[in-house]
Fold this protein.
Amino acid sequence: MTTDTAKTGKRGEVVLRLVPHLTDINANGHIFGGWVLSQMDIAGGIVAARIARGAVATVAIESMTFITPILLGDVVSVYAVEERRGRTSVAIRIDVVAIRGVGMDEVLLTSGVYTFVALDANHRPRPLPDF
């Protein structure tokens, strides 16, 4: 599998790998956009929590591009990598890639940047730990 992206030069780690189910299909025969958004949020949250060394909350989806539809039978991998960090927040670039067909072609499906804020015990923003 390739690991390059145009913007960051790296796709990061595979955080999730899954196969959509028949119940995830919309009327067009594609996977619901909301399904992939939630998978991206889960994967980004895993990476952000590791960086924050604790609880995080999604505060923004800065960018989101649906490049090509997700099809039933696709094996979907969700990649995530830190793009930048602030005092209390971290932006995670998330790419969703499918392995498709008998040729096992890799297809970039969706790409976005999600921002997460580190939370303290009272669910208030807290500073991120030092690198």
User: Anything to note?
Assistant: Confidence is low (pLDDT under 50) at residues 1-8. The longest strand covers residues 105-118. Strands lie at 13-18, 56-66, 75-85, 89-100, 105-118. The CA atoms of residues 50 and 56 lie 9 Å apart.
